[in-house]
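Work Package 3 (structural annotation) set out to generate three-dimensional models for the target panel prioritized at the project kickoff. During this period the team completed the workflow that converts sequence records into discrete structure tokens, so that structures can be stored uniformly alongside our sequence database. As a representative example, we reproduce one entry of 302 residues exactly as it appears in the project archive.
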Amino acid sequence: MQLGMVGLGKMGNFMTQRLIGGGHQVVAYDRDPKAVATAAGAGATSAQSLPDMVAKLTASPKVAWVMVPAGAPTDETITQLADAIGSGGIIIDGGNTNYKDGLKLYAICKAKGVSLIDAGTSGGVWGLKEGYCLMVGGDDEQVHTCEPIFLTLAPPKGYAHVGPAGAGHFSKMVHNGIEYGLLQAYGEGFEILERSQYPYDLGQLAELWCHGSVVRSWLLELLVLAFRDDPGLKDIRGYVDDTGEGRWTVETAIDENVPAPVITLSLLARMASRQDESFSAKVVAALRNQFGGHAVKAEPRA
């Protein structure tokens, strides 16, 4: 198939390469000319703007995949692209869009005769080699039309049409919420090991647990690689960002009256990681000092 790729960051670039390797024709656009040049070097046709990309799409229907940051960048890109691609065109949103925002965009596109497919995409920087897990939501006919794209990007059994518009983004949101909890559990477990009286080789344990253990996973395999590169993790800062999906999962759980303590606490732990010194911890320490004489003095400021 022929398709446009909008957004050539790490994932967009690797997806472009995988699609070209699978025999598809890709017209690539990004605001960064260097990213476009990289895609062109991999075999894509370069485009200088969204209208230029659409003009170079000669197949019918015209199909474009959007892989830009969630929020305003996605909203603006899809709105502009819907105007450019015209009635009958298909836009695939593979970013981490909030499903509520995705449904609004779906309605905007539909009013212009354009179909919007939401493709929850998981795989990160390993997707080029391993393939991308795709959770796809949208209208049956248009999803079927784009299946050759999905089947090329995904590994065997790694693609499914999971429901109507919004279903792809919703399932990816929950997927990432679960990921938050899994990452936090591994982090806490290995900190307990690291603080213990035993001189564990943490990389050895991580690799051991990859074989036959009930806690084995791809995430654990990645931790083996991390310990192999930096056994004490001394070269990485303990700052953990969140890109929205964990928050949205917690908000949705509250809306649906679903208790989700693990995912909620993992989100709060990420927030705590961003503080060099927590003021709430200062308050607790001050109170403990007042009633019990427990005080640890702050280091003098330089």
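The longest strand covers residues 115-122.
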